[in-house]
């Protein structure tokens, strides 16, 4: 596939057509193209998304589909009225396929040429797409071929030659240094855990720490998930880790003036004779003890360790965790909207703003103190769930659990459950891992925080 910038139009020409009489920020865009005999036209699928960026992303993505639907191989685009970077990004992202394991998979040989624009714009769009696609690749990889150690290896390979410092703690380091959450969750698997860090230094200031949940497979542990509950999709429980690592990749490719440290606790949550048992009590990195009432609420245990580690080791200006954490979040907001919670309203606002500008929308959920008592334990400092059968406010309670491991640092928690994995192609989103959060967090790193 080729997406590039050219100086003149040729052959089949496409352009955005504003078909909404009112214009403004809620425009609908359709895509028109003219060949010698035929006029092609289609409405871009993702219309009425907020603002110009959404329209241009949709246009770029719609154009890719347009070629496929009409069996066309090459199109020139009149870029008038488009945000060029977003249009190029939309075209590129929509072309993504995870075809690695399909022996008959053939890449689409299509070319999309956008008229006029700087090479810088093209480079920027390509860098963002590469970051998103790396997150998708990691997210889509089956658990059988991406253990924690293999995840680390894949990241090291990808970052070769880039100005990003990679750090790895293995199971021995983790045990010695008291990462009781990560060790506890990982000990049921034959594939031992890792803690991966990727540090990008572009400004020399205090970093933004990005913590991502990396459960390479979540069976539920001894609280085994049922066969009809989507267990076969649980290779995607590592998408938070894939996303935060890919944000540092994007920052390095874009040479952003920002400091980022991505921290990815990587574990496989499996049932075995050595696995964590319901009722066990673990001591986390922070020193706090947790009564584990349900081994399927494991993401918060490894995040607890990583959040405490991030604050102690890196003194970040802000702390953001990204996790496919709760089914309740999917029930509340569906897959197209991420949930955001936090202890600092300015940070939450910055994330919501960055999400709006990149069409990765977030909706804030509260963290009310009066629910905190639900996590009180009689046997330890805190318990990881309220109890079996308690189904209320699961996304919020998970957020409140994480809050226990954050001190004064401005912190936000992004629950991307459902958003991380798409069942079908739609606009620039390809079926499979979506990389949801990569573009908004890159935007945040680029524009800066107000905390
Ligand atoms: Zn789980």
Can you tell me the CATH superfamily of the largest domain? Zn peptidases
Shape: globular
Summing up helix and strand content along with how strands pair, one would put the structural category as alpha/beta
CATH fold annotation of the largest domain: Aminopeptidase
CATH class of the largest domain: Alpha Beta
Residue-averaged pLDDT:
91
User: How many separate domains make up the residues?
Assistant: 2
Number of strands: 20
Number of helices: 12
Are any ligands bound, and if so which?
A: zinc ion
**Radius of gyration of CA atoms, rounded to a whole number:** 22 Å
Quickly describe the structure.
The chain has 12 helices and 20 strands. The chain has helices spanning about 50-70, 85-95, 120-140, 150-160, 170-175, 180-185, 240-255, 300-315, 325-335, 345-360, 395-405, 440-445; strands at about 1-5, 15-20, 30-35, 40-45, 75-80, 110-115, 165-170, 195-200, 210, 215-220, 260-270, 280-285, 290, 320-325, 340, 360-365, 380-385, 410-415, 420, 430-435. The strands form 4 sheets. Strands 7, 8, 9, 10, 11, 14, 15, 16 and 18 form a 9-stranded mixed beta sheet that branches.
Provide structural commentary.
The protein has 451 residues and is of the alpha/beta class. It has two domains: 2-117, Nucleotidyltransferase, domain 5; 127-447, Aminopeptidase (3-Layer(aba) Sandwich), CATH 3.40.630. The chain is 33% helix and 22% strand. The chain is built from twelve helices and 20 strands. The chain has helices at 51-69, 84-94, 119-140, 148-158, 171-176, 180-186, 239-254, 299-314, 327-333, 345-358, 394-403, 438-447, and strands at residues 2-6, 13-18, 29-34, 39-43, 74-78, 111-115, 164-169, 194-201, 208-212, 214-218, 259-269, 281-283, 289-291, 318-323, 338-342, 362-364, 382-383, 411-415, 421-422, 432-433. Strands 7, 8, 9, 10, 11, 14, 15, 16 and 18 form a nine-stranded mixed β-sheet that branches. A six-stranded mixed β-sheet has the order 1-6-5-2-3-4, with helices on one face. The chain is globular. Residues 23-27 and 45-50 have low confidence and may be disordered. Zinc ion is lined by residues 218, 220, 296, 298.
């Amino acid at each position: 596939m080729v997406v590039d910038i050219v100086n003149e139009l040729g052959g089949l020409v496409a352009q955005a057509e504003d078909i909404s009489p009112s214009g403004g920020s809620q425009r609908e865009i359709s895509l028109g193209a003219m060949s010698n005999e035929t006029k092609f036209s289609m409405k871009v699928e993702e219309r009425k998304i907020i603002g110009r960026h959404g329209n241009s992303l949709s246009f770029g993505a719609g154009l890719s589909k347009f070629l496929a639907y009409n069996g066309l191989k090459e199109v020139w685009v009149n870029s008038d009225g488009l945000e060029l970077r977003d249009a190029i990004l939309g075209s590129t992202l929509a072309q993504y396929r995870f075809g690695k394991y399909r022996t008959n998979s053939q890449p689409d040989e299509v070319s999309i040429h956008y008229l006029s624009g700087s090479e810088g714009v093209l480079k920027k769009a390509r860098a963002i797409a590469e970051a998103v696609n790396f997150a998708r690749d990691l997210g889509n990889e089956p658990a059988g071929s991406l253990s924690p150690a293999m995840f680390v290896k894949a990241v090291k390979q990808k970052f070769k030659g880039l100005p990003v410092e990679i750090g790895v703690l293995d199971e021995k380091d983790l045990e010695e240094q008291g990462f009781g959450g990560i060790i506890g969750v990982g000990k049921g698997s034959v594939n031992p855990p890792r803690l991966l860090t990727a540090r990008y230094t572009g400004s020399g200031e205090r970093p933004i720490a990005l913590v991502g949940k990396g459960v390479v497979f979540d069976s539920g542990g001894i609280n085994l998930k049922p066969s009809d509950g989507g267990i076969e999709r649980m290779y995607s429980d590592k998408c938070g880790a894939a996303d935060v690592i890919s944000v540092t990749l994007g920052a390095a490719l874009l040479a952003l003036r920002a400091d980022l440290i991505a921290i990815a606790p990587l574990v496989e949550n499996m049932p075995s004779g050595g696995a964590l048992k319901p009722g066990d009590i673990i001591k986390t990195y922070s020193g706090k003890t947790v009564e584990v009432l349900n081994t399927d609420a494991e993401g918060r245990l490894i995040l607890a360790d990583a959040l405490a580690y991030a604050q102690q080791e890196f003194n970040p200006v802000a702390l953001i965790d990204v996790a496919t954490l709760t089914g309740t979040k999917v029930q509340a907001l569906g897959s197209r909207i991420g949930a955001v919670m936090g202890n600092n309203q300015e940070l939450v606002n910055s994330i919501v703003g960055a999400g709006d500008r990149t069409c990765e929308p977030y909706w804030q959920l509260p963290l009310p103190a009066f629910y905190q008592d639900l996590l009180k334990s009689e046997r330890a400092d805190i318990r990881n769930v309220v109890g079996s059968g308690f189904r209320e406010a699961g996304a919020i309670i998970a957020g409140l659990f994480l809050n226990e491991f954050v001190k004064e640092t401005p912190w936000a928690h992004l629950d991307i459950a459902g958003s991380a994995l798409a069942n079908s192609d739609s606009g620039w989103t390809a079926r499979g891992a979506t990389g949801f959060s990569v573009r908004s967090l890159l935007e945040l790193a680029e524009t800066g925080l107000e905390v």
